[in-house]
Plant heme peroxidase family profile domain-containing protein (Ilex paraguariensis), 378 residues
Amino acid sequence: MAERLNLTSSPSASSMASVRAAAARLFPATAKAARLSFPSVSSPSSLKCLRSSPLLSPLFLHQKRSSAYLSIGNFSTVASPKCFVSDPDQLKSAREDIKEILKATFCHPILVRLGWHDAGTYNKNIEEWPQRGGANGSLRFEIELKHAANAGLVNALKLIQPIKEKYSDVTYADLFQLASATAVEEAGGPKIPMKYGRVDVSGPEQCPEEGRLPSAGPPSPAAHLRDVFYRMGLNDKEIVALSGAHTLGRSRPDRSGWGKPETKYTKDGPGAPGGQSWTVQWLKFDNSYFKDIKQRKDEDLLVLPTDAVLFEDPSFKEYAEKYAEDQDAFFKDYAEAHAKLSNLGAKFDPPEGFSIDSSPTTVQPEKFVAAKYSSGKD
Ligand code: HEM
C-alpha cells in the first residue's frame, strides 16, 4: 500500500531525504532515474516536482484523487515551484472565495481581463511550451505585468494573490482562468464548460515577449484583429463573440489611454469610480454591448475602433447583428469561445485536464416512477 507522506511545515533537507527514501522504497527503478532530474533537495519545489514527475506520478496521482497526498505547508509565492498540478477540491474552494471577492469588490471585469490577457499571448505557430505562450500563469511576473497592454492588471493579481496563498495546490494558470470564468457566470453570463489542470511556468524568463495582445486603435482594425486572433487559432465568430466580454467593465485613460476619466455611469462606482464603460449596466453580462455599439446613441458609452469594426466588416457584422438580436445565440457562442480561449497554449496535467463540476459518474440514476408504467396512459 502506498505510504502517505504528510509534512506540515517547510521541508528540511532531512525531510526531503525521507521523501526520497520512501519514494525509492516504493518505486526503486523510477526513483533512481527521477533523482537525476530533481532540482535540489533543499528546495521546496522539488517536493512538488516529485509529485508531478512523469516517473513517479502513479504514486501521487492515486493519492491526490483521494485527497490524501503530499502536504508541504504554505510556501507558495509568485516565484512558485516548477512542476505544479492543481487539486480539484482546492479549486472548488477557491471558486467560493472568488465569489466572495466578487461580491465585496465588484471586480468581475478586471478578473475577466486577467484571464484573457494570460491566455491571449498564445501563438499557434510555436509548438514548444511555454514559448508558445497562452494560459500558463506567466502574467504573474512583473516583466509581463509591465507590458503596456496589461496596464492596471496588477490590481487583479493583488486580489487573487491571497487566494493563491490560501490554496497552494492551485496553479496561477488555473486560478486566473477560474477567476475569469467565475466572474462571467456571477455577472449573469453563461455557464462556461471549463477544464483545469494547467501547469505554471516557473520563472520570468518564460514570459512571452511584449506585443502579442491586440491594440485598440490600429490603422486597419479588422486586419489587426484577424492577425492577432488567427495567430491564436481563433476565427471571425470567436473574435466577435469574445469581444462581447466588453459588456463588462470600463476603460480608463490612466491605464490604457482609452476612454473618458468618468461618465454618468461610472462616477459613483461600484468599485473604484471612474472610467468609461461600453454599456450602461457594466457589471451585468448580457448582449447590450452589441446593441449599444450598433445604436451609438450615448456619448457616455465607449466604442473603441476595434469594437466599431464589428459592425463594419462584412464577416464580423454577420455575427454582431445576430448577437444584438439574440442573447441566447451570443451566450452559446461566447461560452464555447471563452472555454477555447482559456485552454490556449496550456499544458494540462493530466493531459486531458479535469472538470470541477459534477461529472457523469456522479449523476444519480433516474428514479423509477411506477405509475408511468402501470397506468398505461401518460
Ligand atoms: C478584440 C480586441 C480587444 C481589444 C483591442 C481590447 C481592448 C481593451 C481596452 C483598451 C480595455 C481598457 C483597459 C483599461 O483601460 O483598464 C479593455 C478592457 C477590458 N477588456 Fe478588452 N480588448 C479586446 C478583447 C477582449 C476580450 C477577448 C476580452 C475577454 C474575453 C476582453 C475583456 C475586457 C474586459 C472585461 C475589460 C474591462 C476591464 C476593467 O473594467 O477593468 N477584451 N479591453
Observations:
- The pocket of protoporphyrin IX containing FE is lined by residues 109-110, 112-113, 116, 152, 214, 216, 225, 242-243, 245-246, 248-252, 255-256, 258, 304, 306 (CB under 6 Å).
- The two ends are 54 Å apart (CA to CA).
